[in-house]
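Quick one: C-alpha cells for this chain, please?
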Amino acid sequence: MTDVAEATGPEAQYRAYLAEGRFMIQKSRSSGQYVFYPRVAEPGTGARDLEWVAPSGLGRVCATTVTRQRPEKGGDYNIAMVDLDEGPRVLSRVTGMAPDEVTIGLRVEAYVDELDGAPAVLFRKVEGAQ
C-alpha cells in the first residue's frame, strides 16, 4: 500500500488517502473552488494550485437508482449521486438502509469503508434526517 507522501499523481494520492481511511478532495487556492474527481488542474480555469482538504462529508442525494442482483451475488444495492456541501458531485452508494428507500434530497454523510476489496467513499443517512 502506497502512503500519500510516496504517491504520484492525483489519482494515486486520492487512493492513498482512502487507504488511510480519509476522504479528501481538492481545492483551488486561487479560486476557492472545490474539485472532485482528483485532477491536475481546476476545470474551467486550468489553475494548477490544487491542494488536498478534508470536506465536511455532508451532502444530499441528487439522483439514485437501484441495481438488482441475485441474493447469492450480494442482493440489490443503490447507486447514488451526492452533491457535497462544498459543491462537487460524488457517485457512490448509500448504505444502512434498503436501496429503494434512498430518495432524492436525502441528507447523507460520507465515510470510508471497503467495497469490492478496496477502500471507497460510501454514504449513510444523517441521523434524524428525513
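The first strand starts at residue 25 and ends at 28.
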